[in-house]
Amino acid sequence: MENKTDNNLATSTDKISVLSSLAAFLLIVTGTILALAGIDLVLPAVPHFPEIFSTSTVKAQYVLAVFVAGTCVGLFLFASISRHFERRTLFAGSLIAYAIFSALAAYAQSIEVLIILRFCQGAASSGASVLAPGLIRKLFSNTGAIRAASAMGSIESLVPALAPILGAWLYSQFGWASSFSLTAILTSLIAIFVLLKPDIFPKGKPRRHDGSLGYFALLRHGTYIRYSLSHGLILGGLLVFVFSAPTIIINSMDGSITDFITMQVIGITAFIIVSNLSGWLSAHMNVERIIWTGTFISSIGALVLTSYAIWGRNNPEDLKFMFWVLNVGLGVRGGPGFVRALMAAGENDEKASALMILGIFGITSIGTACVAFFIDYGLIASALGTLIITVPALLLMAFLPKYKEVH
Which residues contact 13 (CB under 8 A, 6 or more apart)? Predict the structure, then answer.
């Protein structure tokens, strides 16, 4: 009888633990999504800022640019101070700061004030992105973390598609400030819940003298570079193609924005399906093989697009039958590759994730700028650019040391 009671108690405790971990995961994902939506939610209102604030189009664009600049600064800031604070405390603090700057932005009376607040808002938003991977690793086992990272990636992939739609509706119904107000309210609620219920997050003491690797040490760490840079190349190559696709489809392929949207919807759907399957695959297959497979599929996808462009075909409707391959490759290796990079960095999750995100930004920015010089040549410019960015990921996987499991 006692054994049966003990088993029931253990089962009940396990269920509570699982529910608590899932609740924490949902809070982390929601906080990260709100941070990522910082650009896309306000995007529909930006074209109207010159009229609203009696300013130039250039200054209106700064509202977007400084947010990205602030995010880059915030990546280093939060990664550096994370060793001195508990992750869950710093996570809540970053959300509170993000909410405050969002609320202040809603009351900005000039474009100059809004630009300054957007820089601060961008810096605060990066806290969630830097801290989320470490929190998730503490919540789940290695396999569970891969599944969680894959699920988070699939959810986050919806932000660029859905946030502008919500932003356009908010602007039409309530004005330009409404997106900032909504962000402030929702972020505040999450931060308050984290502060009131901190026990659902894993405990962790500040790590002032943990001997963890610094930025320069990580940049010289072959195993970390193997996974982090290959991840950045695969995702960066995909984004470079996406960022140049609307202009190429409309100006060089005589298509419409509908062709681009269709291509994106199919690609995102494929990514979501496959990325959620990759967590299951990680529990039944060798993780290295999964990462290799995803990298190979992405390279094949870039090669197919380039071959199509060289062939001289120019039908924008055909892109929807090829672009999804890039998304499948990222979906297969995204979660496992990201988690492996963090594992290779040891207990240095924040700096490791900050460098990865910064690498993705850098690869995407430089790649997009380079493709822009040749964009008048049409599809061959973006397809070849994506191929040049993506294929080196195979070389990194082949020649740099892989992560060795500690049993």
Answer: none
